[in-house]
Each structure stands twice: as structure tokens, then as C-alpha cells.
Specification:
single chain; 300 residues; alpha+beta; Diaminopimelate Epimerase, Chain A, domain 1; 2 domains; 6 helices
Length: 300
């Protein structure tokens, strides 16, 4: 007798208005029957940068709880899964379209979201608090990324965290960003703590904001097409180094994933003169796949 059960899920492309671009995300709108081990196995099976699982909220101020997994580990927060899940919850009717603001419960706590209406809504999240860490030598980062030191901007790369530790590195031009590559050996030269993983975010300033790439081999993600959780660290780094205006806030766009053939546009809004006043990350979402996952064993 077959002992199987089916679970509905969808795949959406985040930070794009085009199908087969942006950052793909699998979302299970009802994951209440999955335990943590099964969630990790599903994320490894689907092998996308992240898979999101929606559960009942444990907080009264949140509409749902979201657990986020890469193929290798669970994340306490991530940008494109948060924005993509919010879009799916709108589609599912779990969040009503006239509800322009709501919160999702994640490992870092409640994440505030707001919706800019229209036929293609722009979904915004408020970044969780950003913590600053150590600075790195430019020559060390250049070597780890396969670049010459003169290919980087004359400012020290720095570690930040908004749930996921990120080393932000500035490059002089798009060509340097496109030439870079970070493997596990390169990552080991940058390790600041042997028991904690981090990603490396490389960018160069552009008239619209930034052109960027992100590498996270320890997360099972050699390169990420779009990294919402790095936008807060990027905004702080650019403000501190006067690469964007900090007078009364700023709004810019980071282009990521182009080198991979998955161009993503991440909108960033800084409210006020300091990051503490609020950093918001926004993007469009394009639905792509409606599917069913079947689990269980077949006994003769």
C-alpha cells in the first residue's frame, strides 16, 4: 500500500518583473506538517538559493512564521525569501491586498513589510538592526576574490550583519566586479570566526546606486543572484564612505546577478540621516511555477 502525501508549493522569481530572471524562491504556503530535518532535506532537493516554509505565527503581531533554508543550512533572516513569501501570501489570500503593512515572524524577530499597490506591487521590507564588525585589509580581500589590490576602492572592506554576516567590499569598476570569484579557499583566508559562516558582497558604485555580486560558498550558494539581507550593510557602507548622500535619506537601486544571467534589481530606501531611522529593501516578484511535492514510502 502506498503511504504518500502531497504538498503544494510555488516558485517565484524575486527582484524582477521578468520570468527566469531575478532570484528564484520556492515557497510552501502550508508547512505545518514538516519538521526541521524535512525542511532542510527539501531545500537540498530543490537546490535553489533558498526555500521558504510558512507556519502559523507564534506572535500576535505577525500574520505568519517563516523558516528559510539554503541547501546547506537554515537562515534567521533573508531578504528575497521574505519578499517572495509576502507576495505568495498575498496571492493565497492569507494577507489581504488592502493590508498595506504587516509583519512576518522570522528567526531575528518580526519583519515589517509594506506593499506599494498596483498591478505589479512593489514589496518592501524593513531591515532588522544592522551590527558592525571588524574591517579587513584591502589586499587580503582582493587576493581572496582573485583581484589585484588596485582593483578595489581606497576604503577598507568591513563586516556587517543584519542576521547574516556580510563582508562588504568596494571595487573600482564593473569589470573588476565581473572578474572576481570567491571559492572556499579564498573564503578561509577571510574567516573572522571559525564557527560562524559569512558571505562576501562585492560592488561598485553606479549612477543609479550599485552593481554587485555576492558569494556564499559556506551556505551552499557559490553565487547569489540577489541578496536582500546585504542591502542594509551596503547602504551603511556607502553612507559611511560618502558614496551616497546621507542628508535626509537616500534611495538607490542595486543591480545584481547580471554576470550569472539572472539580472535582479533591488530597491533601497534609507530614511533619515542614520541607518537607525530605517532601511527598507524592495522588489517586484514574478510567479513562475505551481507544483506538488510528494513525500512518503511505497510498500508492496
Amino acid at each position: 500500500m502506498a503511504q504518500v502525501k502531497s504538498y503544494r508549493y510555488g516558485v517565484v522569481d524575486v527582484f524582477t518583473t521578468e520570468a527566469l530572471a531575478g532570484n528564484p524562491l520556492a515557497v510552501f504556503p502550508d508547512a505545518s506538517e514538516f519538521d526541521e530535518t524535512t525542511m532542510q532535506k527539501i531545500a537540498r532537493e530543490l537546490n535553489l538559493t533558498e526555500t521558504a516554509f510558512v507556519l502559523p505565527a507564534t506572535r500576535k503581531d505577525c500574520v505568519a512564521r517563516v523558516r528559510i533554508f539554503t541547501p546547506a543550512k537554515e537562515l534567521p533572516f533573508a531578504g528575497h525569501p521574505t519578499i517572495g513569501t509576502a507576495f505568495v501570501l498575498l496571492q493565497e489570500g492569507i494577507v489581504l491586498r488592502n493590508n498595506s503593512e504587516f509583519s512576518l515572524e522570522e528567526g531575528v524577530g518580526p519583519i515589517l513589510l509594506r506593499i506599494e499597490g498596483g498591478p505589479r506591487p512593489l514589496v518592501w521590507l524593513r531591515m532588522p538592526p544592522i551590527h558592525e564588525g571588524k574591517c579587513y585589509g584591502s589586499s587580503l580581500c582582493a587576493r581572496a576574490l582573485g583581484l589585484e589590490p588596485q582593483g578595489l576602492l581606497p576604503m577598507k572592506p568591513q563586516l556587517f550583519s543584519a542576521g547574516n554576516p556580510t563582508v562588504v567590499v568596494g571595487a573600482k569598476d564593473r569589470a573588476a566586479v565581473d572578474r572576481a570569484w570567491l571559492d572556499l579557499a579564498g573564503l578561509k583566508t577571510l574567516k573572522y570566526a571559525e564557527d560562524e559562516s559569512f558571505c562576501v558582497y562585492l560592488f561598485t558604485p553606479t549612477p543609479d546606486g550599485a552593481y554587485s555580486r555576492m558569494f556564499a560558498p559556506e551556505y551552499g550558494i557559490p553565487e547569489d543572484p540577489a541578496t536582500g539581507s546585504s542591502m542594509g550593510p551596503l547602504a551603511v557602507f556607502m553612507m559611511r564612505n560618502k558614496l551616497i548622500s546621507s542628508a535626509g535619506g537616500a534611495r538607490f537601486v542595486s543591480e545584481q546577478g547580471t554576470k550569472m544571467g539572472r539580472r535582479s534589481l533591488l530597491h533601497v530606501e534609507v530614511r533619515g540621516k542614520e541607518a537607525a531611522d530605517g532601511i527598507f529593501v524592495g522588489g517586484h516578484v514574478t510567479p513562475l511555477v505551481e507544483a506538488v511535492l510528494t513525500l512518503g514510502s511505497h510498500n508492496e
